[in-house]
Design a protein that fits this description.
With 193 residues, the chain is mainly α. The protein has helices spanning 11-24, 28-41, 48-61, 65-78, 85-98, 102-115, 119-135, 139-152, 158-172, 176-192. It is built from ten helices and no strands. α5 (85-98) packs antiparallel against α6, α5 runs parallel beside α7 (119-135) and α9 (158-172) runs antiparallel to α10.
Length: 193
């Protein structure tokens, strides 16, 4: 259908369904390529940005992390105003961290932290930013990023992660008493919950 009637309004959805069929067959690489075809053949479709996110996910599951990163970079470049741009940048930052590409992880996570208005995304971005900065041996900046979470993002899921990372960072910087205080605070808060 999608090849026979490429101008039909349902053609992007047909490509999406083809990709979903490959998912059902557990053919992850073909699923990734199928989702990518939504963008390739219908770049102006409202499904294209989300299809690229799914394509990236399936490339990663298929063991093709470089293809996954390439798709995310395409998404960021071609759909910068999409509502999936910040989660895509965070995923790319996480992938860079996994490969010890700390500077690239720092850049992507900082872009989210500086621009996003979503508290949850900001908290996640600051966690990734602090880990990237720690990897770059910029511990003081990493600590400031974590401090920002503990002060401004208490209601997000990143809060306790920040406290754990803050304690680890403080211990690594030789501040054992501060590290213990961070961890004890987590323990006390957990006991209340």
């Amino acid at each position: 259908f999608a090849l026979a009637f490429p101008e039909h309004p349902k053609a992007p959805e047909a490509w999406w369904n083809v990709a979903d069929s490959y998912v059902s067959l557990k053919n992850l690489r073909e699923a990734a390529l199928g989702f990518e075809r939504v963008k390739t053949f219908h770049p102006k479709s409202k499904l294209a940005p989300s299809a690229l996110v799914k394509s990236s996910d399936y490339f990663e599951l298929a063991g093709a992390p470089e293809s996954s990163r390439k798709v995310l970079r395409t998404l960021i470049q071609d759909y910068s105003s999409s509502d999936v741009i910040f989660p895509a940048r965070l995923k790319l930052a996480q992938m860079y961290l996994s490969d010890n590409q700390f500077e690239l992880a720092r850049v992507e996570s900082k872009r989210v932290a500086d621009v996003s208005k979503d508290a949850s995304l900001n908290g996640q971005a600051l966690i990734l930013l602090s880990r990237a900065l720690a990897g770059l041996n910029r511990s003081d900046e990493a600590q400031r990023a974590l401090d920002e979470i503990t002060k401004n993002y208490r209601s997000t899921s990143s809060y306790y992660s920040a406290l754990l990372l803050l304690g680890s960072l403080q211990r690594a910087m030789g501040n054992a008493n501060q590290a213990l205080a961070s961890w004890k605070f987590i323990e006390a808060a957990s006991a209340k919950a």
